[in-house]
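CO-FOLDING WORKSHEET

Operator: S.A.
Ligand of interest: manganese (II) ion
Run index: 440
Mode: holo prediction, single chain
Checklist:
[x] sequence pasted
[x] SMILES validated
[ ] output reviewed
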Amino acid sequence: MNDARDISTVALMKSLDAAVASTNARLQPELDRDYETLRTQLARRGVDIDRITQEVGAFGVAIPSWGVGTGGTRFARFPGPGEPRNVHEKLEDCAVIQRLTAATPTVSLHIPWDSASDYRALKERAAALGLQFDAVNSNTFQDRPGQGLSYKYGSLTHTDPGVRSQAIAHNLDCIRIGEQLGSKALTLWIADGANFPGQQHLSSAFERYLNSAAAIYAALPADWRLLIEHKMYEPAFYATVIQDWGSSLMAAETLGPKARCLIDLGHHAPNVNIEMIVARLIHAQRLGGFHFNDSKYGDDDLDAGSIDPYRLFLIFNELVDARFRDAPGLAPTHMLDQSHNVTDPIESLMSSAIELTRAYAQALLVDRSALAEYQTANDVLMAAQTLKRAFTTDVSPVLARARERAGAAIDPVMTYRASGYRAECATRRPQSAGARSGIV
Ligand SMILES: [Mn+2]
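OUTPUT RECEIVED:
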């Protein structure tokens, strides 16, 4: 770590501390009143609000390093002011999100977009900013300069064994990098697939995937997981090799107990019942984690909870239900995976993390014994209303109280705007039209 970075860390935290203190002081009386009102309401239902607040305070979701830059569509990218230019600046932005929300203690890096010369130093830098690292993401969906062989026609499933070897070697590099960062998982998403019927032998491509993934799996440290992310389409528009949770589950069960399935909420056909998939993967003891986002039409990568908050709640309902009945092997990682094209990425990521805590708090409010009785008695209406009652409870005071107790902001977006952080970044980070931001 160099001195300039140390100084900037101190200055960064000081300015945020001041913004949190002044904004919280202003919002405190209002929060106190709202929290006590909700305490009374929940007590009537036999719910201890402080227990819910404590649980919410323990919730964490990883920020994707690529999410703090402005994203783009296939048509254009409109850069925002003060975007991070490298992994160090991305970590600064992630630290702001964690400082204000206390819900994002980890960062999920993407290699090679976040390549660094010294990963142990990067881990120290992150720790100084109050951050740790979650899963490492490999990238064999684009070529990088001088890599030798192209991924144009696939990577881990390519017909050429040389390309497959190159893609395997990259994933092994990612594991080594992740070990230095303190990560415990490698997320594997491949763009491999076909744009035309007949382009690819569907069975052989899957078998090549299993063989390549087995070589990666064999290199996993004992306490690591391999998170297999499926995606229905894009960039392959006819068939992707790991298209759905069936393919993902087959791969995980073939590879071994460290292989788990990762659910990206946007990687399904429209109207697919994602909470059902969650339940099935919990049953199979193969639920590895999530890439949270939201969508209206496809893999839209919109902010979590911005389109269909009920679906988000129903997913958390499955997770909370599984935890309460001690479902074996349950320890999914939570990560965001979004593309912010028209908002300040920091504001979107903070709002998304808060929406996850909201869905979690609502799921904790479900009267599970009543629900079980209604289900057993086939009282359909009351069963449905039991879930709705939890979902329609405004848990905002719980979320705000959890943040406040952690020393974070009662209102993160208001506090962020008051801090002037983005304007300060704009002065020291010149705009870069070419900066990449991924959608994976
Ligand atoms: Mn994803």
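REVIEW:
The chain is about 50% helix and 10% strand.
Residues 229, 264, 291, 337, 440 surround manganese (II) ion (CB under 6 Å).
[x] output reviewed
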